[in-house]
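Reading is simple: each integer encodes one residue's backbone shape. An example follows:

___
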Amino acid sequence: LIACPFSPSSHQVKLGGGRTIHNRRCVPLRSSSHLPPKLEHLVQETLDSNRKIVVVTGGVLSGIGKGVTASSMGVLFRAMGYRVTALKIDPYLNVDAGTMSPFEHGEVFVLDDGGETDLDLGNYERFLSVSLTKDSNLSTGKIYQSVIERERVGEYLGKTVQVVPHISDAIQEWILKVAQTPVSRFSKAASDNDCSKDEPPEICIVELGGTLGDIESMPFVEALRQLQENLGYKNLCFAHVSLVPSLGDPAEQKTKPTQHSVKSMMQLGLRPDFLCCRGKEQLEPSTVSKLSLFTSVPKGAIVSLHDVSNIYRVPLMMIEQNVHSMLAQRLRMGPYEKGVDYSAVEDLTQIEESDVIKDWKKLADSVDEPESECVIGIVGKYIEQGDAYLSVVKALTHASIATKQRLRIEWIEASSLCEDDDDDAEKNSDKTAWERLKLCDGVVVPGGFGSRGMEGKIRTIQYLRENKVPFLGICLGMQATVIEYCRNVLGIKKAHSAEFVDDLVKDEEDAVIFMPEGDRTRLGGTMRLGARETELLEGSIARRMYGTEKVMERHRHRYEVNPALVSRLESAGLQFVGRNTDESGQRMEVCELSESTHPYFVASQYHPEFTSRPELPNPLFLGLLETCKKTISSKATVAN
């Protein structure tokens, strides 16, 4: 027998002597009937459910705005009444973002199920108002780990495991599984008033991280090419985000970077259906015509994503360019007009009158029309990397929108506050760090890892407490709060965290201790992660702000407040008004000073920023901004 490069059929031929052989007919190996059973089942389920997939890619440079573009498209689908989910593909070899430095990669966004993911998933949750899962972030490390585990148990039946078809098939399976995984409107951690029950999504938006042409993303590009072949043209479309810079004086829009980006995309087997062009100014008609000529993308499908006053205007800008109708026509959704090219279709969906878009317009307008200004200081370790505290900034923004204030953030390096007379701490200003801190209306001390800047955070909290400046501490910020109170109120001068000092006196100086169930040897995925329940004390500030006895919030920590010191701290005035209720026993989750002592002095072990939404600000951030507004108003009244 001569080996055939196609798969054998099950047709049998009888030979003399009772022997039977398989008659090898040439059938194309990758026809739909010869997909691996798992992938074939997922493809069929997607087709039967009429589920659609939108893939967003990027070219020219990284950080071009793929995440906001993908999220904004999700808003359009929400306004059309569809259930939307999202998947972020990161081509790096890390299994997840949990062990990556904030200096290099920005913040780690934590999901309800404990997934440590890329910060873009925060954008998806905030724009789509859904609670995603850890599978919604796919990395090269995850996919290779999964394929290697399957090979080790013999799932591939002795075959040579290769990038194509095994890795590419596994990627397709992952995408289709995420696309069918039920999601719920609003995060369960943020509110117990979910807008809908868990139901399978109707739309899945996939963002391919990095820049097309990067060597590490090649398996994903090939998998996406195959996926469109398997699902069919009407069930999957591509939106490519590229850059159209303006150079010269007077400025001229240059199309060459986008031309080369699309050419590279087409050489890889992908063809953009929508071309989303980033730039300072709106695309000129001549620029659109030139791009259409050289990229073969219809003029109507070339979308101008120029700079606007705030990111909440991006979905509205897309509506002005009829992107919602073109998406519906291209994917054969809703009132599909047969025989009409998707780029030429008129407004099919009338989503401008939907509640989602009406609320979105109010949100965008309120950002641009504040009643007053509020200066919030963020005292942290990673301030040189703007994305390291992205969710904190977003949560503050949501609260400032709700309180009709213009938010101005004062970034302060914690290590520059270690000494009151530190004149070398000037950063980005002609004022010292302490002088800039004293000009803030309120201060947030966010989470972090490592000892650098810890003393600066402790000194900051002492100043805020003694001078009655509104304060919110998060994770390590709460631990620093407890250490400061032990030192300066209880008189335990050597109080510290066991994370940074080894020889502390047990249950006296060790204000913060390592959690018993923690793992000191493995770093990835071994912290206390995900949404956990906290019970709030009646009459507390936190209970009033949340408006409920029990809340679910997301955690990411290895150390906790030492329970042995809690009674002494409470006797001295620091009340632990939030405690966990799970099987791990009582843990201190929220502490605060009474309003008779301080206008707003609250700290939480969990991360409230991860559950804040534009239409539903997290209560702890909202409380901070409301207090700041009252304080500013009181000062103005006194001054007058």
About this structure: The longest strand covers residues 372-380. DSSP finds 19 helices and 25 strands in the chain. Confidence is low (pLDDT under 50) at residues 1-31, 187-196, 420-430.
